[in-house]
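One example copied in:
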Amino acid sequence: MKTKEFFGKFVSAYLLGHLAAMVVFIVLICFGVKYGLEWYTHHGEGIEVPKVENMLYANARTLIEQKGLNIMVTDSGYNKKLPEDCILAQSPGEGTKVKEGHMVYVTVNAPSSPTFAIPDIVDNSSYREAMAKLTAMGFRLLPPKKVPGEKDWVYGIISRGRRISTGDLVNIDSPLTLMIGSGLYSEEEEDLDYVEPVYHQAHEGTMPEEDDFEEVKVPE
C-alpha cells in the first residue's frame, strides 16, 4: 500500500467534517459558559449603595430597603456631637455596586459614653507605660501628681477627686490623674537644709578647754 493511499484513509471528507464539528462545538461551549456566567451573575450590573452615615438608623433602614438591600447593626460607638442611634460608619461604603439583597453593615451611636475597666497599672508600670495604655483606651490624662517614691513609678489613679483601683469601671469622659513617684522617699528629705556651725576663735595665747561655737537653728 502506498503512503498516499494510507494517509488518504485518515484524511477524508468524513473525518474532516467531524473535526470541524468538534471545533465549532468547543467554541460554542466556551462562548456559552462566558456569557452564561455573566448573565447569571449580572456582570456589570448592580445596586449602588447609598450614603447612610450621619443618618438616624430608622431613616437609613428605610433608604436601604427601598434600594432592595438589607441593613444590620454590627457595632456601636460614641460621638457626643451626634444624636443617639445615628449611623457612625457603614460597610460597603457609599457608591459601591452590589447585588440585590446584599447586606449593609453599620455602626450606630450609643446613647451615652462607654465605661472601661481600669487596667492593672497601679504599682505595676512606669508613668510612660501607664500613659500609653490609658490614652490608647481613649482616656484623657491631667498633669500627674508627684508623691514620695521611685521616680516616675505609678502609685495610684485619681478620677474626679476619688482614688480608683484596678478593675473599676470609669466613664471615658472622666479625666484621670496619675500619682507618680518624685524620686524622694520622704517629704522631709526634700526640705532638709544643712547649715554649718559657726565657730568663735580663742583669745591669743590661751588654749580653750573646749570648742566655743554658736548653734544656728534652721528656721521651720
In short: The chain has five helices and 13 strands. Confidence is low (pLDDT under 50) at residues 188-195.
